[in-house]
Amino acid sequence: MSTRLNWLRAGVLGANDGIISTAGLVVGVAGATTSRTALLAAGVAGLLAGSLSMAAGEYVSVSSQRDSERAALETERQELAEDPEAELEELTGLLAARGLSRDVAREAAVQLSERDALRAHARVELGIEPDELANPWHAALASFVSFTVGALLPLLAILLPAPSQRVPVTVVAVLLALALCGRVSAGLGGAPPLRAVVRNMAGGGLAMAVTYAAGHLLSASGA
């Protein structure tokens, strides 16, 4: 359940990033031009660049984490082979530190070690589940998909309405989507929803305001 919640939270955050970054981009372009072609080109480029960047970053990050976890497991495996008694004593101390009496901790450590010493040390000492190491390809795909789904909303919102309605429709659609993302993210993390919703909407609104102003000023200056 914890793993699923982490993936779901990452998906919501990826979609949130896609909404904000793409909305800021297309609203900024809309401040400079009414050309649908320019908006489409900017939006698609931003969607692809953002989703691929997120996927690549997540792949590298999770690959590094996986390599570190594998190295830690290998070190633990060697220590268990070289000095099992010392490792048993270490496991006993770790269990005792969690509130068990010394005798109970020793008995638990013995039973866990007899069943699977490496798994016991991985869980208690390293906080790693050996059979559930993070998959970098899964992480990259999840980031790509979530960012793309989020980015599609502002892209469609800026392209479908009439030119005079593009920015207002996009702003409203984006703020509503950000409110939903903030609410879901807060719910997954057990945080107060109102603060998360307001913070998310404020950040997205500020991004769109700044980029629109920049685009409008560049257009007015003839740049």
Give a nutshell description of this structure.
The chain is mainly α. 86% of the residues lie in helices and 0% in strands.
Question: How would you characterize this protein structure?
Answer:
The chain is mainly α. The protein has two domains: 2-67 and 141-221, no CATH class; 71-132, no CATH class. 86% of the residues lie in helices and 0% in strands. It has helices spanning 2-30, 36-82, 84-97, 102-126, 136-159, 166-189, 193-221. Helix 2 (36-82) packs antiparallel against helix 5. The longest helix is centred in the first third of the chain and has 47 residues, at 36-82. The chain starts with a helix and ends with a helix.
- Give me the Rg, rounded: 25 Å
Q: State the low-pLDDT regions, or none.
A: none
What level of helicity do the residues show?
Answer: over 70%
Coarse morphology: elongated
Which helices and strands appear, and what pairs or packs with what?
Blueprint: H1 2-30, H2 36-82, H3 84-97, H4 102-126, H5 136-159, H6 166-189, H7 193-221
Helix pairs in contact: 1-2, 1-5, 1-6, 1-7, 2-3, 2-4, 2-5, 3-4, 5-6, 6-7
What brief labels describe this structure?
223 residues; mainly alpha; 2 domains; 7 helices
